[in-house]
Design goal:
The chain is about 75% helix and about 0% strand. The radius of gyration is 32 Å and the shape is elongated. The longest helix has about 40 residues. Helix 4 packs across helix 5 and helix 5 runs parallel beside helix 7. It is mainly alpha-helical. The protein starts with a helix and ends with a helix.
């Protein structure tokens, strides 16, 4: 038994020595990665590189563009107001509110994105228009959507702040001026809807507080009693259907 252990130990030592000798004789090759600039032999190579660069830039700016140029801002603000008005702090959670806002944004913006795909992306892929024409055609439906939701007062504010000459029509207004005007218009509309959402829940809080004071139960927090009634009222009137329906119809 002892001799077997010694033999096994010798075999292991020989194996290690052979492996070390082989490693010393042929060192392990470590792969390297190099990035450099070469000469382009065809115009298509330059175009492909620029397209990849533009695509990476757009992907990095996609979250900001989604928030600034779509219906996402209004939806997420209204849903946040709804949660605050009901008095529930973590139901639904932030992830659910943002997820619901994203899918509602996809639903509302789908006609605009389909128009962009039909008029700009597909002709560009078919090489019937160039890149500049594709960008102009892609921005046009998005501008139409934003201008339909933007107040003239907000648009005039940013035109005056940018010190631009008076435009003859909305087509002369730069897109970089339309986007911030659209955002503050969305915030104003969202706060108006949030105020209307607060009113029925505020009435429930006032009624519950009055009943508790009349019963002499002033040490009992009214919010603890009114919360179940607010949830019950919201469920009975199909609150989610009313809020989501109003949000979607507000963009019509």
């Amino acid at each position: 038994m002892k001799s077997n252990r010694i033999l096994l130990l010798l075999i292991c030592c020989v194996t290690l020595l052979v492996g070390a000798a082989a490693f010393a004789a042929e060192p392990l090759a470590i792969p390297t990665i190099s990035v450099g600039l070469g000469k382009a032999t065809k115009p298509g190579e330059i175009s492909a590189a620029l397209q990849i660069l533009i695509l990476m830039t757009i992907m990095s700016l996609a979250p900001g563009l989604l928030i600034m140029t779509t219906s996402f801002t209004r939806i997420v603000v209204v849903l946040s107001f709804l949660r605050s008005a009901m008095g529930v702090q973590q139901a639904p959670s932030n992830q659910i509110i943002i997820g619901l806002s994203l899918f509602l944004t996809f639903f509302i913006m789908s006609p605009v994105w389909q128009q962009i795909n039909t008029e700009a992306i597909q002709p560009y892929k078919a090489q019937t228009i160039n890149q500049d024409q594709a960008i102009d055609l892609a921005v046009k439906p998005l501008r139409t959507f934003m201008l339909a939701q933007t107040r003239e007062k907000d648009l005039a504010l940013f035109i005056s702040l940018s010190k631009l000459p008076r435009p003859r029509n909305v087509n002369d207004v730069p897109t970089l001026t339309v986007i911030p005007a659209f955002m503050i218009s969305e915030l104003r509309t969202a706060f108006q809807m949030g105020f209307l959402i607060y009113i029925p829940f505020l009435v429930v809080d006032m009624v519950v507080a009055s009943v508790l004071m009349s019963m002499g139960m002033m040490m009992l927090p009214p919010v603890m009693i009114s919360l179940p009634f607010k949830i019950l009222l919201f469920v009975l009137v199909d609150g989610w259907g009313l809020v989501i329906g109003s949000l979607v119809k507000s963009f019509a």
